[in-house]
Structures are given as C-alpha cells and as structure tokens.
Specification:
By secondary structure, the chain is α+β, with helices and mostly antiparallel strands. It has helices spanning about 10-25, 30-40; strands at about 50, 55-60, 65-70, 80. It is built from 2 helices and 4 strands. Strands 3-2-1-4 form a 4-stranded mixed sheet.
Length: about 80
C-alpha cells in the first residue's frame, strides 16, 4: 500500500482543495485534525479510500487526497 503523497501536489488539485474547504465550511480545527493525520505519513489503499474526522471526510485515490466531504455526504472506497 502506498504512503499518502505530501509534496509535489498538482496545482489544480490544491485549487480544488481550497474551493472545497471554503464551499463546505471546513473549520480551522477540522483542518488541523486532517493535517495531524497527514503528518503521521499514513499508508492508504491503491484505489479509492476515505478517512472520517469529526466534521469532515477526506477522500482519495492511491497516494493522493482528492476532495473533502461534509458528514452528510457519502464517501466511496475503503475506509482507512
């Protein structure tokens, strides 16, 4: 299983993260929860996956985070 990619993220994907964070009202505290998890250098499945936090769900595919969801939105893939 790959490690989560933490550098050399495509600019378009970073723009998408910012858009989703603002549109979905992700708080600073929720973002810190995600960053703390990312700093732990987690391994993730090679296909679709998601990680739930108290107010946000992080979704990814392989080593990349792809988007953020609110708790009311459904995630697909393997829960990590």
């Amino acid at each position: 299983m790959p490690k989560l990619q933490r550098s050399n993220i495509p600019v378009e994907l970073l723009d998408h993260f910012l858009d989703r964070m603002f549109r979905r009202g992700i708080t600073e505290e929720e973002l810190y929860q995600v960053l703390h998890w990312v700093e732990g250098n987690p391994t993730v499945p090679e296909d679709d996956w998601f990680k739930r936090f108290s107010g946000v769900t992080v979704c990814g595919r392989g080593p990349l985070i792809k988007t953020f969801l609110t708790p009311q939105q459904s995630a697909t893939g393997t829960e990590v």
